[in-house]
């Protein structure tokens, strides 16, 4: 089994977590909707992740909905003392599996309580306000004061330890910081989608974690001949190489690759041990320029 003890850590608010975590989205059924085909295998993946040293799990109660949090509770409750559970709120699932906005303060408060109940805890380590963005997976500008204030009030009540925001612009980060301290930002970022380069560096200077979603970009986006050639030369897979590049990109980046396969879990975690040379990093940086972001 892979051991990620040497991957290094970064602060997620007041919590110190290893930079290689686990994203639970793929524990649900197809389309992140309904139950998985093999629930026992999902339980096994979670337990193996913890055994390998993972101490940061990213989840959400609208994965399923409810299914993923219930599986996490079955697999890991009572939770290890060092395990940091991070969720997000801001959407709900339609009966057809649609992703629908649930952005009113009342809906956000209800969603936090859903997470607490289904995870079986009285306080969650961190909650991200997930904004519903513009075209594709990108953010769109707009005020977030009422929504983020609702979560800040739950933090003051002791139901949430740390706050984050997801799918946001730099202006929205600044607005949120006027309301409460930020522990993390979750945005779309990977080897070829690099619109947040300046944001990442700014957050690093403030000691704020940056958690990329779609860190592997999907095969259609991130798989290029150049990436495959580099990976073959250094003896890794393209996806391991892309993850290692993210870890090298900035010390505040926390990875949360997800899978429901034990073998794929080990492959993802192995990326934490890759050390890329300066030459290889330069080659990987050049891919973004060739593909475009």
At the fold tier of CATH, the topology name is TIM Barrel
Q: What portion of the residues fall into strands of 2 or more residues?
A: 15-25%
- Would you identify the CATH architecture? Alpha-Beta Barrel
Helix tally?
Answer: 11
- Tell me the count of domains: 1
Large-scale geometry: globular
What would you note in describing this structure?
With 293 residues, the protein is of the alpha/beta class. The chain has one domain (9-218, 249-259): TIM Barrel (Alpha-Beta Barrel). It is 40% helix and 17% strand. The chain has helices at 39-51, 67-76, 105-119, 145-156, 170-177, 197-206, 219-222, 225-234, 238-249, 262-270, 278-291; strands spanning 9-12, 15-18, 22-23, 56-58, 84-89, 91-93, 99-101, 124-130, 160-166, 184-188, 209-213. The strands form 3 sheets. A 7-stranded parallel sheet has the order 3-4-5-8-9-10-11. Strands 1-2 form a two-stranded antiparallel ribbon. Helix 3 packs across helix 4. It is globular. The protein starts with 8 loop residues before the first strand and ends with a helix.
SSE inventory with pairings:
Elements: E1 9-12, E2 15-18, E3 22-23, H1 39-51, E4 56-58, H2 67-76, E5 84-89, E6 91-93, E7 99-101, H3 105-119, E8 124-130, H4 145-156, E9 160-166, H5 170-177, E10 184-188, H6 197-206, E11 209-213, H7 219-222, H8 225-234, H9 238-249, H10 262-270, H11 278-291
Parallel strand pairs: 3-4, 4-5, 5-8, 8-9, 9-10, 10-11
Antiparallel strand pairs: 1-2, 6-7
Helix pairs in contact: 1-2, 1-10, 3-4, 8-9
């Amino acid at each position: 089994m892979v051991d990620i003890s040497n991957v290094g850590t970064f602060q997620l608010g007041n919590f110190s977590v290893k930079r290689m975590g686990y994203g639970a989205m793929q524990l649900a059924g197809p389309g992140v909707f309904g139950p998985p085909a093999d629930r026992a295998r999902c339980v096994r993946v979670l337990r193996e992740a913890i055994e390998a040293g993972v101490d940061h799990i990213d989840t959400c109660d609208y994965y399923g909905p409810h299914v993923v949090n219930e599986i996490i509770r079955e697999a890991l409750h009572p939770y290890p003392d060092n395990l940091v559970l991070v969720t997000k709120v801001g959407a709900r699932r339609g009966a057809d599996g649609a992703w629908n906005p649930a952005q009113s303060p009342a809906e956000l408060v209800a969603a936090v309580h859903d997470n607490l109940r289904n995870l079986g805890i009285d306080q969650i380590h961190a909650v991200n306000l997930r904004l519903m963005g513009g075209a594709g997976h990108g953010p769109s500008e707009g005020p977030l004061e009422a929504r983020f204030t609702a979560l800040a009030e739950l933090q003051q009540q002791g139901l949430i330890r740390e706050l984050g925001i997801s799918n946001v612009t730099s202006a929205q980060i600044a607005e949120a910081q006027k309301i409460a301290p930020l522990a993390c930002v979750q945005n779309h970022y990977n080897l070829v989608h690099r619109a947040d380069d300046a944001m990442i560096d700014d957050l690093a200077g403030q000691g704020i974690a940056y958690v990329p979603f779609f860190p592997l970009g999907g095969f259609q986006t991130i798989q290029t001949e150049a990436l495959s050639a580099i990976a073959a030369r250094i003896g890794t897979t393209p996806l391991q190489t892309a993850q290692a590049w993210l870890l090298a990109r900035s010390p505040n980046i926390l990875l949360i690759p997800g899978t429901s396969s034990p073998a794929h879990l080990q492959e993802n975690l192995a990326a934490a041990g890759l050390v890329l040379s300066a030459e290889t990093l330069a080659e990987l940086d050049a891919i973004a320029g060739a593909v475009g972001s």
